[in-house]
Amino acid sequence: MANPVGAPERAVTLIEESCRDHRWPAPTVRTTTVSDPGGGQVRAALADRADLVVVCGGDGTVREVADALARSDVPLGIVPLGTANLYARNLPLPHHSVARAVDVALHGRPHVVDLGRARWGRPDGIVGESAFVVLAGIGHDARTLELVRPALKRHTQWVAYFVPALVTLGSPLLPITLSRDGGPSEERQVWCVLAGNVGRIPLGIEVLPGARIDDGLLHLAVVAPRRVVGWVPIALKGLLHWPGHVPGLDYTEAKAVRIETRSPLTIHVDGDEHAGVVWLEATIETGVLRVHLPPG
User: Is residue 27 reached through a cis peptide bond, with omega within 30 degrees of 0 on the bond before it?
Assistant: First the structure.
């Protein structure tokens, strides 16, 4: 499964060469499209009784393929070719060497992992749904993603996200209602809420400490600094992995969470934005996917 945007030609060539070297059948190469970003190709592979599905692309493509492959018992190999490759960094998979990534994708050890699921609604009643491999978020962090310029993203990779982040740090807190696992609702003022399957981003920053791909839990971060200076301890906790509590940052765990807003906000699911949302639900599906990982 190859996303042409990520220039997968070298990865595909290495996969074909490895299959020849091991005297395996030649791989079937299917390319994703805007109208079918991975799900249809996976269903075709399953219909052809594929023994392994390898995806060459970024987090969005991996999400689409993982969603269609879940509960099939067919393992997934990942060659990360996206901008941030957050899921690959969390597994952890080689993300600086295409050759090493291909080797793990083809010959790695299958590991059973979880998959996130998000649903959201708009004032007109339209409901959206998507799996997620990394996290879903609502609030100003999603607004930050909206401001990322495509040209800057192409040239500077994940660093592009820090530029618009500086613009939104001082944004006023947003009123939301939050409930976990069907429990009582609580009113909060937040900068954003994150619900994640994994919790590490570039530079080794932990936005969701302790999150594991196979712990069966949805990890939540409620971010609510009262002043811009309040970002300093939050940033240091993420960078230096400070133990204990810092003001403006609360962590919790759940199987499911529901967030409602007073006015439409933007959400993101694995970095893809959806505007005009008034409620977001996130859940975790335990052990529904097998992914090839490096030994150990």
Answer: no
